[in-house]
Amino acid sequence: MPVRWILHWQPNQGVIVNSHIFNEISQCVESMNGVKDGRWKATITFYRPNLRDQSLSADFPRDFLGISLMDQPNKYYFIIRGNKIVLEADSSILTIMEKLQSYKSKVALNFEGVQYKLGDFQMKIIKVAPNQAENLRGILMEIEYLPISSVEKARPIMEEFIDIWREVLSKKSVPGQFMLAEADFAEYGLSDNYSWQHTAVQYATTLAQLIATVQQLRN
Amino acid sequence: MVFCTLKGRRSLPSQKKADMECVVQGIIETQHVEALEILLQGLCGVQRERLRIHEICLKNGPNLGLVASEVRLLCDLEQTEPSWTVRHIGGAMRGAGAEQISVLVRTMVESKVSKNVLRMFYTLGYKLDHELLRVGFSFQFNRGAQITVTVSSVNKMLKLHATDEAVPVTPGIQMVEVTAPASAENYTEVAAAVSSFCEYLAPLLHLSKPGVSTGVVPTAAAAAASLMSDGGGTTL
């Protein structure tokens, strides 16, 4: 499958992410002749262990995430970031997890995006919001280069595209910039051949970076 | 964490599909397995598939979870690239209705997964309970229900995960299992289809609900001899 990169929006100091910024970014994509190509959705769920004794929580993974992607409706992805584990499963795994009653979902974040086509590239501008709530907590951008499925081969093309894209954004003076939190695929045992598991790892990595950024800005 | 302001439920819609199975089991002496294979071949009209499955049974550690839970990881070693499945077997259906049916009806959910599933469950706090290697063959066909018959010898490993050095748990005896996926809507029909299929195998082996051991049948040797002599042409 084609290689994707996922970037997160880092607002300038003192600026809060809002819908206005999201709209300005979307307009920039349109100014690059991006053609709207539908909507997209994903959900990331945080799981916590069901413990009889809460003082033992340190013995269990704190960052156990589940990811569902609209493009893969019959699949579900689990990530344990601390242990560099990614698992692809049929979505019936959710029924199994419910029956096991050993972990429960605590919080879910919705990722809702608009997809654009720009020649060989596909872009998504994505709003991140807590489930069932309207307030925007972050903005992500996904870039997909359709002709290449090798992570390494796609790198120079992706870098070049991002340089052009940053230039377009800077001309608009949108207060912030897109940052790349690169995932180390090899640590997760993933090869150079891009797959949905790579996508899941990228979302988990980018989300962690996004949360860190928000916390940093608050402190 | 700043993001976690609302308690959310998983957003995927629950999937409406068969999450139950009808199952019966029996045993047969290894010397009669060839005859059983001939009989099954004749009844099913499909080719057998070779079976080599490494089954790892995990249980939750003492501090994890509000209830005891068990999950099975099945690694299909017949594939060029071993493939993994997570299987959860739930409680058997109970009550007067269930008593009257000659097959066991229970919940069963499976999910095909990528290869590092064992590592994930260990990390989540699950522990190895036991592991087995099943070697044999299976037939899959449709006869009023999607029936799978597996005939296999159950082996234990002398060293952890050493599937190449597995030894039979019950030498000279193989296990036969007949299963069919079902749902809350159709399990009576599926159970009837499984029961009626099992009658064809009766001269060679007796199949009953798991846990209800009925041993080998006395007619097995004669039935096997008959099958072997005419290649399954005799009406049993």
Automatic annotation (TrEMBL), chain A:
GO cellular component term of the entry, any: mediator complex
Superkingdom of origin organism: Eukaryota
Localisation per UniProt entry: Nucleus
Keyword 4Fe-4S: no
Keyword annotations from UniProtKB, A to Z: Activator, Nucleus, Transcription, Transcription regulation
GO biological process, one term: regulation of transcription by RNA polymerase II
GO terms of molecular function: transcription coactivator activity
Similarity-based family: Belongs to the Mediator complex subunit 20 family.
Subunit structure as annotated in this protein's UniProt entry: Component of the Mediator complex.
Described purpose of this protein according to its UniProt entry: Component of the Mediator complex, a coactivator involved in the regulated transcription of nearly all RNA polymerase II-dependent genes. Mediator functions as a bridge to convey information from gene-specific regulatory proteins to the basal RNA polymerase II transcription machinery. Mediator is recruited to promoters by direct interactions with regulatory proteins and serves as a scaffold for the assembly of a functional preinitiation complex with RNA polymerase II and the general transcription factors.
Protein name in UniProt: Mediator of RNA polymerase II transcription subunit 20
The organism of origin for this protein: Cicer arietinum (Chickpea)
Taxonomic placement: Eukaryota, Viridiplantae, Streptophyta, Embryophyta, Tracheophyta
TrEMBL record, chain B:
Any GO molecular function: transcription coregulator activity
Main location: nucleus
Alphabetical GO biological process terms: regulation of transcription by RNA polymerase II; termination of RNA polymerase II transcription
UniProt keywords, alphabetically: Nucleus, Transcription, Transcription regulation
UniProt-listed InterPro entries: Mediator_Med18 (IPR019095)
Keyword Transcription belongs to the record: yes
Any one cellular-component term (Gene Ontology): core mediator complex
Localization, UniProt: Nucleus
PANTHER family, alphabetized: MEDIATOR OF RNA POLYMERASE II TRANSCRIPTION SUBUNIT 18, MEDIATOR OF RNA POLYMERASE II TRANSCRIPTION, SUBUNIT 18
Family according to the record: Belongs to the Mediator complex subunit 18 family.
Listed name of the protein: Mediator of RNA polymerase II transcription subunit 18 isoform X1
Lineage summary: Eukaryota, Viridiplantae, Streptophyta, Embryophyta, Tracheophyta
Gene name per UniProt: LOC101491075
